[in-house]
Amino acid sequence: MQIRVHVPNVIAPIAAYVADPEHAKTENAFELTMSKVPGGYTVDGIALRVKGDTSTVHTPKKPATAHTHNIQNYKIQQCHVGWPSGEDMHWVFALAVSRAKQGLPEPVVHLCSTVEATYIIVCWLPRLAGLSAAAVASNGDEILAHFASAHGHRCDDGAGDEGHPCGSAFVKMAHAYRFTGKACERHAGERARCVLPNALRKEAARLHPGPVFCVGYVPHDMYPDGKLIEGHERYCRKNGPRHLRDINFGKFDRRGSIRVTHSAEYVDVTLGPTYL
């Protein structure tokens, strides 16, 4: 079975919060509206905004949500990329399991909007209604550890990807995690400790043989606006890595605009042996 999750109208307005000077010092979360359409779901609007602090925000535990990683965090943490955290992926998984146990059909969709891209995370686990509490906890802990292993790589230059360093590495890592077999590819070819099969993962695999997360990746362009510091030039995608390096050293004055670079704003989610 395959579904398609489409987010045509929400990426640009949410991304605008990443660099907007009014919101640049806080993370923001959003509750989104989602509709059933032929072949899948469309996330089509913003229902609620929640303001957080400099590094965290309470994201509503709803089937369609988003949150931002603002430009100030890149400066404070000296990051080149701002992909979703292990905690982000952990609660998305936990909510998907909870909804499966309640018999709710919709996928859990979460957008993480960052300087370099919007990551479209979809977790759809309808067969996990029979998963034991021990297996939910164990697999959740492994998901947290799996994605936390890439946290430190946010500060690496990495390899360029569509003008941005390592933006697609998170997507590869997300697609590598499943309940069956090993999950070795964590970050841009890094050979870290594998997540090895165990009884509780096998219990989950009997119910859900495919990938746990399906993730899309929509790159951004960022342009500084207003008064620029001396020697600061206008950036575009071709020198995006330099742009992100300069953010780390405080050369970006927090006034800017985000522009979505293309319209591949959907994620295909397949449940079944196709992904084995």
Quick summary:
With 276 residues, the chain is of the alpha+beta class.
Defining key terms:
nine-stranded mixed β-sheet, 25% strand, two-stranded antiparallel sheet, 276 residues, alpha+beta
Question: What sort of overall outline do the alpha carbons produce when their principal axes are compared?
Answer: globular
| Strand order in the sheet with the most strands | 10-9-6-5-4-2-3-1-11
Backbone CA Rg: 18 Å
How many strands appear in the DSSP assignment? 11
Strand % is: 25-35%
Alpha-beta classification? alpha+beta
Q: Number of domains in the coordinates?
A: 1
Description:
- About 8% of the residues have low confidence.
- Helix 3 packs antiparallel against helix 4.
- The chain has one domain.
- It is built from seven helices and eleven strands.
- The protein is globular.
- Strand 5 and strand 6 form a beta hairpin.
- The chain has a nine-stranded mixed sheet with strand order 10-9-6-5-4-2-3-1-11, with helices on both faces. A two-stranded antiparallel ribbon has the order 7-8.
- With 276 residues, the protein is an alpha+beta fold.
Task: Map the helices and strands.
Layout (H helix, E strand, L loop, with lengths): L1 E5 L4 H9 L8 E10 L2 E12 L12 E5 L2 H7 L8 H16 L6 E6 L3 E7 L9 H16 L11 E2 L2 E2 L1 H10 L22 H9 L6 E11 L15 H9 L7 E5 L5 E5 L6
Parallel strand pairs: 1-3, 4-5
Antiparallel strand pairs: 1-11, 2-3, 2-4, 5-6, 6-9, 7-8, 9-10
Helix pairs in contact: 3-4, 4-6
